[in-house]
Amino acid sequence: MDESKSISGNVGKWLAVVSAALTIGLTAINGYWSAKVSETESEIKKEAAELQKRRLDLDSDKERIARYTFVQTLLKGVLTQDEAQKNLTVNLINLALNDDEAKQLFSGLQASSNNETQLIGSLGKEVLAVSNLVLQMNDDIKKNRLEAVNKLLKNYLDDPDTVNQALSLFEPPRLNLLTASGRINVLVFLSNTELSAWTTQSISRAEKAVNQIRLRSKDGVAIGSQTENALSRFSEHLKEIKAKL
Question: What gap in Å lies between CA 186 and CA 205, rounded to an integer?
């Protein structure tokens, strides 16, 4: 009887030891496979992120190639165009390229040995300079904003291209980037422009822009008294220009 109890007790001890060993073993195995699964998931996420990046890079390359092809098409006939057509073409090229691309292209054209090509380069750099001035009216630094407005008021009141570039700031998505100071500066410039700077198309754009700015108040974008006064003055100026065209 005692011997039977002893054997039974020993078996129980051994079972407890085996059970503990199995538990430790299974815990270790589970830990190993959990780590492997986590590692695999991490690798899959990295691969997915890399694929997404490549996809975005490819889309960016396609978009850049499309822009370059468009610019190449514009450049083919530019030398035979009259002055008005050349200005239009240069403006389209400037819109199609980013700032650095436009600088490189127009600087390269200006360095050409061909006089006509040099002229296109000079026109392009002037358009780029005006574009930067227009954007500078919305600069973070007050001194830069005032300098841009003063230069535009002094040199570009009769220029249709400058008017169109200024109007583009009142259209999405650029409108959302305009500060209150930027809006007022653009309105001040446009309110002082001359009749020769306007066409029926640009007047239509301007009228839509005024409505667009006023409608934004419904979306929670406040219009202060200065902006309202500038809008009213610009609306009156548009009426005067429209009556004379």
Answer: 14
